[in-house]
Write a structure and sequence with these properties.
CATH superfamily of the largest domain in chain B: Type I PLP-dependent aspartate aminotransferase-like (Major domain)
Distance between the termini of chain B: 59 Å
Shape of chain B: globular
Helix content of chain B: 25-40%
Shape of chain A: globular
Structural class of chain B: alpha/beta
Order of helices and strands of chain A: HHHHEHEHEHEHEHEHEEEHEHHEEHHH
Strand order of the largest sheet of chain A: 1-7-6-5-4-2-3
Oligomer: heterodimer
CATH architecture of the largest domain in chain B: 3-Layer(aba) Sandwich
CATH topology of the largest domain in chain B: Aspartate Aminotransferase, domain 2
CATH topology of the largest domain in chain A: Aspartate Aminotransferase, domain 2
Number of domains of chain A: 3
Structural class of chain A: alpha/beta
Low-confidence stretches of chain B: none
Number of helices of chain B: 14
CATH superfamily of the largest domain in chain A: Type I PLP-dependent aspartate aminotransferase-like (Major domain)
Strand content of chain A: 5-15%
Radius of gyration of chain B: 25 Å
Strand content of chain B: 5-15%
Low-confidence stretches of chain A: none
Helix content of chain A: 25-40%
Number of strands of chain A: 12
CATH architecture of the largest domain in chain A: 3-Layer(aba) Sandwich
Distance between the termini of chain A: 13 Å
Radius of gyration of chain A: 25 Å
Order of helices and strands of chain B: HHHEHHHEHEHEHEHEEEEEHHEHEEEH
Number of domains of chain B: 2
Strand order of the largest sheet of chain B: 2-8-7-6-5-3-4
Largest sheet of chain B: 7 strands, mixed
Largest sheet of chain A: 7 strands, mixed
Largest interface: A-B, 209 and 201 residues
Mean pLDDT of chain B: 96
Chain lengths: 482, 453
Amino acid sequence: MSEAGAIALIFESGQEGRANRYFEQGKPLENFLPRQLLRDELPLPDNSELDVVRHFTRLSQRTFGIDLGFYPLGSCTMKYNPRVNDAIATRPEFAELHPYTPDDLAQGALAVMYELERSLSSLFGMAAFSLNPSAGAHAELGALLIAKKYFKERGETSRDKVIVPDTAHGTNPASAAMCGFKVISMPSNERGRVSVAEIRKVVGADTAVCMMTNPNTLGLFEEEIAAIAAVVHEAGGLMYYDGANANAIMGYTRPGDMGFDLMHLNTHKTFTIPHGGGGAGHGPLGVAAHLVDYLPTPVVVREESNFHLDFDRPKSIGPLRSFWSNFAHAVRALAYLYANGSEGLKRVSQLAVLNANYLRVKIAEFLETPYPEICRHEFVASAQRLKKQNGVRALDLAKALLDYGYMAPTMYFPLLVPECLMIEPTETESKETLDAFAEALAKIVQRAHTDPQALFDAPVTTVVGRVDETRAARQPDLRWRP
Amino acid sequence: MYAPHTERDVEQMLQTIGIASLDELLRVPAEIALKQKLDVVPALPEYLIQRRFAHLAAQNQGVEYRSFLGAGSYRHYVPPAIAALAMRGEFLTAYTPYQAEVSQGYLQAIYEWQTYICLLTGMDLADASVYDGATALAEAAIMALGASGRRKVLVSRAIHPNYRAVLRTYCDGLDVEVDEVAFARGGVTDYRLAAEMLATKEYAAIAIQSPNFLGNVEEPSSDLTQAASASGTIPIGVVAEALALAALAPPAAWGAQIVAGEAQSFGVAMAYGGPYVGFIAATEEHMRRIPGRLVGKTVDNAGRTAYVLTLQAREQHIRRERATSNICTNQAHCALIATIYLALLGKTGLRDAAALNLARSRELASAVANVAGIRLPYDAPFFNEFVADVGRPARDVLAGLRANRILGGVDLGRFYPELDSCILMTATELTTTGDIAALAGALKEILRVPAHV
């Protein structure tokens, strides 16, 4: 039994035989298969459709999404997800298309992929993109596999180091390790940037790839990026651009122009694909001309007015997933590009950066902002001073924000900023929303001085209070048992 | 561009920031500033975007054909209640549930997904999802490599060719060797050969898919399971058609310690290949090696039941280069869809769906086998797909069927050169008697004409 207030698990309700009639009654399975191949029991509950609808509707009401309120989760670009994109992606001609449909009967789908690929290549200054990877981390893996194969074919197998700044996303080193590379962490300077001097110290004949994001996870633009890329290239290494922060640069500069050889995008960030509670994502992988042959298979190619999937690419690293792409997401991303065009995308970046700086200035009035200068699409604030004064941590501020109906910012990342809150408002939020959020956060910080206990107890308006994570990890309960 | 700013807003905000213009705000060093015009699709108002995609959608004529395609992507009935629930904005527009207090609903749904996968596979635990069936196999192999310290894995050649290809891609990165064990004449893995190969004690894992890519249900021999156990090899069960789990003995029954699979069949659209939803389930001993997110049940500060992401010390954002996997974003929304599907169908609905798949595919097999010139090369039991040998290049026969607006199946010569006269045909609960009659009729016509050699 669940406690009052909790929602019973779907397994704790229902009665055997309370079936919904989606199908006619099937014959006993023994009619078709030998007994020893069949399972003995199938211990799943039978619930009426109404009970299932109520169950998941209630679960949805205990879930916070962008549709409910401001979602300033840094590096996640939680902007509005236009409903027209879903309407298009769920059209039966797209949703019911089998991946093994012959190319000539799937020309519309292939055209979508081709148009998206060409547009992204131009927008980010790459020779080509693969739409194969399922998410950003998946594309990172693909890119590092490309680097590994590229160096192997050049006989440069001693290149086994991947350089990652301390501001990098955690996926960067994890992806590098999956390709057998050793990870070299590089500190950023007092201005929160990677310096040419620092990169010179770590780059050498063993450098395979330098992975960077620009703007970085502090929201700061790496102005020396061209010089950094030159140092890496001089040493024979490749430059990789983590595109999680691409919302900040469109129409102003391109990874290709900055000197990057490989990159990924998170179309579920920059191009409004719904995150769906943690996926599915979609991580196009872009490469400069000298690496095109290594892209994962298949690649969409155009021959005159026809498109086809090309699997015959001898230098390719091979496929990264079962089928061609998270295609429904490619449809959404292309629909978003059509809603903007190149001028609209430039405006997107302008307003994303405008919103971030506006909120930064407002928040700097009452909270430390360790890098008080023009930022790009996001910025970091710190509760370090509050912690010293009142014991109030970033976590407490985050939990208190939940009581005001806001999603909390990203906490404790990047790792180099103590008591960090990383805030990314995105361009789809209005000035009024930003004003209200800043006002709420100001009240919370005020409260930290007068009544810190109130913040330690937050949140109090949610369906549960602070959750015992230690118990969850020490006594793992990962499933219901009959 | 979906931004709400008026010109007045922009001016006021620039003033607050203390900067003159947007261009100044976004300025980058001259040497990297964008110089050329961008070649992006043109901006259109919303009603014309819809029109543009209606035009593109109309060029996917394949959706109108009678289809016998399967091979890892299956056409099943999807109750409309799924979309009504899953497309609710609270689910659709949430991020990964880092803030548990405002994500209890999604966390509970994932906990339910983990439970459904355990119940279906017979395993002790399951993760919150991975990208798809192919990457699930790759991640499962990585678990086994980590557990055993060995550098080779053995896979049945009857595993989905795309899954094997993805496994190779991943293993190339890790400098791990992938060996294949052939399938025997009956269209199932050569268990005896596999057992011999395991005796070398070099393999971290042996992976077997059931039903396998040829549609046949695998029944690994006790010799093989004993060889696995004696050689310290971890058996991995692979599932590409998850609906089969409603009927067949779970992989745990033949000793699988890890199950890697694809759950697209549970209500997820075929969508030209994605997004789908992979799952990894395992026995208790592999808990700390499982990749990706896990949801656990715990209590809040008032002792109330609560759910939370747990065992995060395995994950990349904590562990960085020592993580069990680099996976971050997974396929949560597809897992939610599958969970709703399983809840709606329940035991009874799943059994009925499985029985219909078994019945229709047998109806199809018998109609096809009755066509002169066609032979069914395997007599192993199958779930909803099987191989038909048409006695001439499958490619030509499939082209002939296309002229009749029929997608007759997958040309196996594409993956197994020795099977270039074979077609993998699939029937599900949605396949009609009319579809089957049309296919059999067209095959008769096509095969009546002698093949030109």
